C-alpha cells in the first residue's frame, strides 16, 4: 500500500525554489508578525469586553460566547476546506487574502450597534483567520528540515503571544483614550497593509523539499487525511491534549481583564500593560522554550516532544491555583506569569510532530485538523464554560464567583497532563510504522 504522506510538489503549483537563508528568515519573521496580527485582532475584544459589556448590557455568558464559541465554530469549520486547498495551491496567496479579510472585519466591528451585529462581525474575523495558520505551518515545515522544525514553529507560534502582548497593550490604552469602537478601526486597518507585504515579500517554498518521497498521481482526500490521522496511536492523544491546554488558557485568559478589574481594582490601561507582560511575554517565552527544549531533548528520546509539555503543564496547576486565590496583586501577577510560561510549552512540539507524522502532502490539513480540535474545545468551550460557571456560582457565593470559576478551570489541566503522557507512550509506534 502506498503511503499517502509522501508526495512531491502537487500539480498546478509553481513554488519558488532556491530561497537563501536570509529570505527564509525574512519569510519566517513576516509570517510571525502575521500570526501576531491574528491574535491582536482576536484578543482586542477581550481587553475591551468590560466596556462593551456595560455599553451593550451583556452577561458573562454572552461575553464567553462572543469571545469564544461564536468565533471558534466558524474559525475551525472554515479552516478545513482552506487547509485542503492550501495542500495543493499557493499558500502565500492564501495567507495574504486571509489577513486582508480578518483585518477588514475587525475594523467593521467598530460600526456595530448591538450584540448580534458584533457576533456577526466576530464570525467574519473567525472565517478570515481560518486561512492564516495551516498554510503558514505548511510553508515553514517546507523551509526547515525535521530537526529544526519545532524551533522554527516555536518562533512562529510565539507570534500568538506577541499578538496577545500588543493586543492588551494597544487595546487597553486605545480603549481608554479613543473608546472601543475607534480601537477596532485603529487595529484592523494596518493588517490590510501587511497583507500586501505578504503577497510581494514572501516566496512560496518547494513543497516537501526536506522529505523523502515519490510523486503520486492522486492526492489524499480530506476523509483519507482525517482517517489517517485518527488511526495514528499518538495523534488523538496529543490533539486532545492541545485542546485541553487551550481550554484552560482561553478560559482563564479571556476573563483575566475582568478578574483584574473586579478583584484587584486595575484600570483598563493598567490591565493592558500588566497582561502584555504576563500573557504576552510569558507566552512567547513558554512557546519558544517548548519548541527549543523538545528539539534538543528529542536527540535522546523522541517522546520528549510529548512528555516535556506534560511535565510543565502539571507544574503550572498549583502555580495557577495560588495566583487566582491571593489578594496580593503583585504576587498574583508574578504567579500568573510563571503559570503561562509553563502552560505554553505544548504548541510547537505538537505542530512539529503532527507534520512529521503526516508528511508534506498533508501538512496544512494536519494543522487544520489539529487546530479544529484545539479551537473547538479550547477556544469554543473554554470562555463559555468559565463565563457560565461564574454566572452559576454567583447565585451561591456572590462576587467571588469569577475567582472560583478560574480556579476550577486551572485544575482541569490535569487532563492535559495525562493526554500528553499517553501520546508520548504511543509515539514510537507511529514513527516506526511510518518508516516501513
Number of helices: 18
Q: How would you classify the helix and strand content by structural class? A: mainly alpha
Low-confidence stretches: 1-16, 213-217
SSE arrangement, N to C? HHHHHHHHHHHHHHHHHH
Count up the domains.
Answer: 1
Characterize the overall form.
globular
- State mean pLDDT (0 to 100 scale): 84
Give me the CATH fold name. Growth Hormone, Chain: A
Give an overview of the whole structure:
It is a multi-pass membrane protein. The chain crosses the membrane at residues 26-45, 65-83, 153-174, 180-202, 235-253, 273-292, 304-324, 330-352, 364-385, 405-421. Keywords: Membrane, Transmembrane, Transmembrane helix, Transport. It comes from Kordiimonas sediminis. Its main location: membrane. By secondary structure, this protein is mainly alpha-helical. The chain has one domain (21-206, 221-434): Growth Hormone, Chain: A. The protein has 18 helices and no strands. It has helices spanning 21-47, 49-56, 60-86, 91-108, 115-129, 133-143, 146-178, 180-201, 222-231, 235-253, 256-264, 268-297, 304-323, 329-343, 347-358, 363-397, 401-411, 413-434. The termini are close together.
